[in-house]
Amino acid sequence: MKNKPYPHNIVPQFTTISELLELTKNKYGEKIIFRTKKKKGEESVSYNRLYDDVMNLATYFHKTYGERTRIAVIGENSYEWILTYFAVVCSNNIIVPIDKELASADIAELLKDCEATVFVYSKDYDDIADDLGDLMPALTCINMKSLKGYIESVDEAKMVATDKDAPAAIIYTSGTTGKSKGVILSQYNLCKDTVASSQVVEFRGKTLALLPFHHTYAFTVTVMCVICNGIDTFIASSLKNVMELINDFKPTYLAVVPMIVEKVDKGILQKIEKSGKKKLLGVLDKVCKPFDALGIGLRNKCFSAIRNGLGGELDFIISGGAPIDQQIIDRFDSYGIKIMNGYGISECSPVVSVNRRYHYRAGSIGQALPEVKVKIDNPDENGEGEICVQGDIVMLGYYNMPEETEKAIIDGWFHTGDLGKIDKDGFIYITGRIKNLIILSNGKNVSPEELETLIGRLPGVVECLVSEDDNKLVAEIYPDEEFRATQSDIQAYFDEQIGQLNDTLPPYKAIAKVIIRDTEFVKTTTKKIKRTYTK
User: What pTM, to 2 d.p., does this model score?
Assistant: First the structure.
């Protein structure tokens, strides 16, 4: 199929989670929706069981805690985690997903901020629950292993009437700068984003739920969307042994962050180098291109060795959460695996845009989802400015932060803080982040993300960060340890490489200083580098 617009997928409409669960129960019944690994083997959950479990637990929560109670949940990915989230919302209470990597004191701070009175946790967080019991004596702590008993204790489940527009979830951001904010989302926000995402992405086959569910991107795309589309899903409790999971479960598609794709890409490239078949793969790519134009897919056979190393059935990857290098997208495309780069932000439930399977633009984050409007605020001479979003996916506001809400949502438009531009066909391109923008004394604006992408392509670079020091651009690089061992003078090597890169850049974007790190950068729990620079 040529790279041009085509009709949206037909998707059922729903505005609350209970509607979604009832609709899919009636459609799929005993079909398996979730699989998990247990000590005794694999456990599977059907749509019928999911619906019944949620309704029973929601009945228990409603009877025990009433309505509008803030109930927090923490733990590794599991069916019980999903069950807790849905039951809380369907009981007309408010779910607060907590980052499982936070320390007890940080968790307590968030729970106090949102005024949570109930804390549901998995067995791996017994110690944290004990700590919270000391820090917050009034907090009711529930181990997930108790949920089965609560479900079985309900004689008759009763559907609780919920308001689709009322607060349903408080999601705490984990940005690279500033204090975490509690993003308030309604069921309508989440459901509209799920429907719109399903209209443009051809969800089919089976998948692995790899990303931590407390991330909005993970929950919307690997829980809500898979339920909506009847996707057989294996729930991975952690990101350990990702390649083993892929080869065992053989997913049709994956929804991941660039970090995972980069690691897979690096592993593939290393194997290609060791095999000595780099030139052969280049030849095969050229052979396939004429057939691509005719709609004849030869890549599955020509690149079968690489594809078999990824389970053999992987058709496409949804990448979000951070920028991904276009060169990686192009490489996977040559293997016959489409990477659909998208963009989202927690405040927008979170998906805003995505490249489609057969309609995309290299370097872009795709077009806005159906019924979502995107504009560029105060564009400069190049059409670049702040990306703003309007639509039913935009949050209700920040919890207990009216001033921050007023700054973020102006005349119905959510100001993302991201810089970008939109082409004539509506494809959106991100060029940086307003808070990260470096303004030099000559008035020139430099987006560090642009330079970091270029530096990241240099051989031997694992991580890098560009900042400003005394009106000069500084590149801080963490090199690959094996690569470092091959260089007699790693500083001299990167000085030379950066010098060659500078020759291709406008003078004001030239890197004046290179710093080599011996350790990885400090990161947020979403694996984004914290923008702190040590001189």
Answer: 0.88
